Amino acid sequence: MESQDYWSDVNAVGDYYIRHDNVYTMKFVRHLPNLNSHLTALAQYGGPLAVFRRNDLNEESRMEIFNAVGQLITEFKWTSGNLLTMSWSSTESLVCVQTDGSVLIYQLMGGSPQLRKFYIDSKKTSSEQVASAKFYESQFGTGVAIATSTGRFLFLNGLENFSPKPLVGQEIAFSGSAWRRGCPGGGLAAGPVNPIAAAAHRQPEQQHHDCYAAHDQAEHQLGGVPGQVQHATGQAHCGQHQHRVHRDNLARSSAAVAPAVAAVVLRQAAAVLTVSQLVQRAAVLRHFLADLDPVPAAWCVLAPRPSNQLGPDQIRIFVLSRGGLLLLEQNRPPASLLEPPPAEALTDLCLSLDQSLLALWSEPQRHLTVYSLASGLSASGLPAPLSRHSLAGGPDSAFVGGDGGLLRMAWCANAAVMLVWADQRCLLPTVRSDRFANRLDEFHEGEGDSGAPLLVPEFDGLRLLTAERHDLLRPLPRPVEQLFNIACVSPATVLLLAHDTISGQARTETAAYELFLTIESDADKLAAVRCCLEAARFIAWPPDQKRVLRAARTGLALLPPKYSREHRTDELCQQLRLLNNLRFNESIGLPLTHAQFSRLGLGVLIDRLLNRRLHEFAFRACELLRLSESDGQARVMMHWAECQIDTLPPLVGAGVDIGESREDAQASDALVADIVKFVGQRPGVNYARLAGKAARLNRPGLARRLLDFETRSQDQVLLKLHNMRSELDLAGIMRKQPVAMALYQQAYCASDPAALLDQEDRRSDLAALELRRAFDSTEAARRQELLGSAASRFTEAGLPALAKECQLAAQLLERQRKLERDLSAQQFAGLSLHATLARLLGNGSEKLAESLRREFEVPEKRWWQLQVTALAKSGRFTELRRLSERKSPIGYAPFVNACLDAGNEAEAVALLPRVEREQRVRCLCRLRRYAEAIDFASGLKTDAAYHLEYLRRHLAREEVRQPGQPVVREAAQRLRALHQTMAAGGGGV
Amino acid sequence: MSHLGNVGRLKDLLCNELLALLDSLKGKNLLLVWDKPLMTPVNMVVDTNSLKQHKVHTMYSIEATGSIGTVPAECDMAVFLVRPDPTIIKYVATYVNDKSKLPTSKSAAIVFVPNKTIPCENLLRELKVDLNRVQLTEFQLDLLPFDNDLLLCDWPNAFRDYHLKSDISSLHYLSRAIMKIQTVFGIIPNIACKGEAAKRVCDNIIRMRREYDLEDTAAIAPQIDNLIIIDRSCDPLTPLVPQLNFEGLIEEVYRPKYTRIVVSIPRDNDVEERKVALNSADEVFADLRDRHINAIGKLLSKFARNISAQFDERHQATTVAELKKIVSKLPHMQAAKNSLAVFTTVTEKVKAHTESDEYMDLYECQHELVHGYETDRANPFIESLIAREGPLPDVLRLICIQSFCNGGLKPKLAQQYMRDIAQAYGADKLVTWCNLVKAGLIAEQKPGARNHYSAIKTTLSLCPEQLSEEAPADFHYVTSGYAPISARLVQKFSQPGWRGIRDALDFLPGGPVYEAIQKVKGLRQDGPVPPVYSADTKHNLVVFVGGATYSEISALRFLSQSDDFPADYIVLTTGLLSSQSFLDPFIEEINLTNLNPFV
């Protein structure tokens, strides 16, 4: 790892240079002699390692999860059934498949698993088990496909989504076969092979639809083969296999066409049966299949990706069976992909991560053949092989591989294929190369017997893990190769050299300068800078990173400033700093390359850190890389808070909704205080979500407390409503929330206000409501009654004055009803006291009025005013005159006004002398006796100015209202003249 | 009064919101159906031409009577611009469900102004409206730009609803309006509020800011310094006192709808009805609006002289150049002449109102009360007014004034007034009395409580001695002698600050004083530089929760013109009040049904 000999760890494989980095020396505390003796799963992207220790005689089975450097993250007892295989999903959940078809999904930190299930224990047989399982990455997430011991394939796309209809147990239905194996009698291979319906293998009552579809298809594809295939299970005798074909099934085809064709048909059917469920239904066919593999030798899954247009309920499967290669697909006949069939028996296959390359291995011929799938799959089979390597010995092979069977096989970023035997490893290039046909690589470096490594393909390389070492093989990108290749002198190399010269001890600036001079054009300089930046991304060792980064900066300094703006190195530096921290901090142990980090994205990386509960580190990472508040720190905080809620000790109290024990309340309070202290009120923090979580964990008290901190009122209310158990509870909580209560009451008031107000004990409102209802009632007796109850309500509400008024109103109504009875044909009920009195006075029933007035204690002044108005209005001027002869407490102006209102000017004039001085001018004005008014006003000793001003305004108004009245005009002129003389005379009276 | 000057940007914001909404609809040619009362307010922000440019093909309006016709053939979508009002919704639902009116090939959209409500949605569902075909959306018309310095969040009954029904919806809309202002003018750093409802609005906007997460978008430098929120219940006195500034009197007399009034101008032997929009665009009105009514006459005659002088100039014009200059001025002169005619008529009518005997008597009484003379005993004028069965609103208004100026009525006095009213006007008026008590407009003095009004009056100098109607030195001219408390509070906020008048603030009813600071983070360096913001003049947004009077607005305009303290004020209010309209919502009209069916 010394910077000087970077190239020494690089191997040329084919056209690629593959760099070998030792990522870690493993730090397993408990000694793991050989990972190969346990069931293991290592995640991509430097993820965790799961080791399953199957129970030895007296020990329990345990699952242990380590990080990439071998430190234990978590471990737990295995209590479930028989674990078959496991893998990590794209979200770093451990997916375990049991032989009974259960899929257990564990979070990284353990806990109780999610369970999904493949329903394979079909009705009749319970012997069916999962034989093998494959995991794949699709656009819908991590998927699982299984092959059962009876040869069925089932799959589940998008494991972690709660897909509305999980595809568990859905069978791959294919209706015909086109498979031929390289067996004796393969002479039939010539010409297109027509599929025939596999419908024969299905129970008609179960699969009518499929049958018809299959028949149509079969018939269509048979072309010249006449005949109608009927549904039935059948047996076939034909060809060298001497099996009987059921007459009803394939009679027509066997009869009408040459027996050879029938043999094809049969074999096709047989091939189907290896992967169909129908085996169990036809005993003869089962026997027939006995000499085929019940389970395919090897298979892999072509997952749905945007590039291959497979839907969420579709996958394709490559199956090796009996040395041939089949493609299985939903609703299509299986297609044989190798035409003509290869001479050797294929035993293993491996698909590259991007699904563009397929490697096939044959044993014992020891041939590796690589096919490109980039141009898509066609029914006619695979294109010509991209390369073919033989390890069987020969002039161009220096290597024959390890002893025994091939153990593992994996792609190293489309550049090479790694083959692992128990004692040997071999890296073979993808494309056949004359120079490096195949190359041996000793990765052990003599470090003892750690066994064959686990292989994990990454998109930019290949991880190798043994109990001692964690290594990474990566093909060098072109710029890096240019920078370091010994045989190459590129501008980048010169730049690096010049930089080394400056920073070296010799400090020979001149030499450096001369070196710089050799890079002539700006384009070259730029290329050199870019090359160095690219190298910095690739290099895993910090001192080397620093070196090339400094070189890049030096190069940028030589360029015009606009380039330094374009090539910001600070962001890259921060990212590398983060990655180095992730890798070299062994308690984290997350060795990501920069390319992997870029592909993963910071968001996902933060998620992974959160999965490991590394909240503080994640928080700092967000800060370092300036992730926006809501994507970064707030999310970390939210996760932290959720973890806090998750890890709460169980409830002490009864755990019932409202009855929360004191200890629980204290615990909740403390937790909420903690959360609020750390999380605070930053944007992106969603207390409603936390409250929802608490509510799901059946901690309503905690949920309620958390909800109080939610800013989004809508979330708050919805969740609150959701948590309401009963109407009672609702009202109880609402009473503490005045705003909500007001709104609720408003909504409720429309239907039954009284009940609500009664319930809420709002007595004064209730009393007012009663009062309103009293006046709404159309019946006097009812109104009287309601007024009485309103009075008692007001008393209850502590408003005696209003209560008294209600009583008086009721009393008045009583009197009015009596009056109505006494003075028939007159209406009184509903009138005000004034109106009642006025009506009585108008009728001449002064006595009645007087007694009523006394009963209701109408004050003197008001009584007088009332009398004056009522008498004038009803035209009783004699009575009015009689009244005016008494001493009036309200003066006599009201008399004049009342007469004028009633239109009796003469009476008004008669009363005028009795009007007191202050009111006289006004009354004169009303009588339009302006001259008199002016004389009177100017003759006044006091307040003359006030009255004159009144006159002026009055006249001005009259002029506007009725222009051209001579009386008004003359008076106005006189007044103006008077004003002038007064002004001349020295400031008024 | 405001030099911020770009209230127009708020208008653009609202206008664009509506146009974008129309653009987002599926239809290519739209039939726009108006809920009639919405026409004026919506037209204040969007003109018909822009609507036509944004796919609107034809427009109908829903009248009280009669039904609207079918969707024209050219239109493929009917858009209903409606209030969330059940009767209107029912109407729309019937229309939409009627295949003959809206063929199945055409779709519809209902645009709720200002808000979609859950009851309305439920109603639509009940009426079996196919919500797949009928799109529901809303146009949040939270504020109407009345003038450069006056914004309205149209909730005329906000004060009543809040105090009687505890209905806080108006506060929500008001907060939303303030948020809108903040999106245009930036976050307002200082908030001061007085009163419970004001505090609620303040809490709302702080909360909304968190909810909307404006941190990231707050790139606009703050252009308004202070947000002063005043709850009407802290100053119920001002709307009770009749206004005497010109615009206030127009409000009292004409009751304009969305600043528009109809003036009947006598012309020859005929009367011409003219619709006039009252805003600062009219030069004459801009000059008159804030003056005392007694100063208007002289101003009008000055205007008249000016115009006639300008008209006379044409006789003296000798050269073509001079003539051309005069001709170019003609339209302007004509407009001035027209508005002069209008406002002369208006002045006459307004003066007739203020100079009537009844008005003068009321004025005198309320003048005495506001000055705090003998407020603790029964007021003889009020008593005689009741005895004469004078207008009840006036009676109640005077009682409310007396109650405020006496720090509550003595229980005995309250009971006397209550009985007088019940006996003179009928016991059903007790309901109104209860309403006023509940709203705190009539209060009963607690035993042993002190009357703080005189302290308030002195601290805030509500009734300064000197009064000039034509060249006022202080804004108490707006009511001839009483300076609105709210305007004083705003004035004192700028100078010397509310801390200096803490006692008076605490004595005022309505609730707590609360001041908050909104931090303005994340201001981009390269963000737009505020165009008019200067350190010298402080810009203030004054929000009246529960309505404002023109007397207050004129007082604030007076303040911003005075040189003492450079400050600008924009007013946002839930409604425009007059002494008449303030109490109206509390006076409950109970249908007094005939109790004797045989008569």
UniProtKB/TrEMBL annotation, chain A:
InterPro entries: VPS16, Vps16_C, Vps16_C_sf, Vps16_N. GO terms for molecular function: actin binding. Residues 8-160, 407-559 form the Vps16 N-terminal domain. GO terms for biological process: endosomal transport; intracellular protein transport; vacuole fusion, non-autophagic. GO terms for cellular component: endosome; HOPS complex; lysosomal membrane. Pfam families: Vps16_C, Vps16_N. Residues 716-941 form the Vps16 C-terminal domain. Belongs to the VPS16 family. This is Vacuolar protein sorting-associated protein 16 homolog. It comes from Macrostomum lignano.
From TrEMBL, chain B:
Belongs to the STXBP/unc-18/SEC1 family. One of its GO terms (biological process) is vesicle-mediated transport. It comes from the Eukaryota. Pfam families: Sec1. This is Vacuolar protein sorting-associated protein 33A. InterPro entries: Sec-1-like_dom1, Sec1-like, Sec1-like_dom2, Sec1-like_sf, VPS33_dom3b. Coiled coil: none annotated.
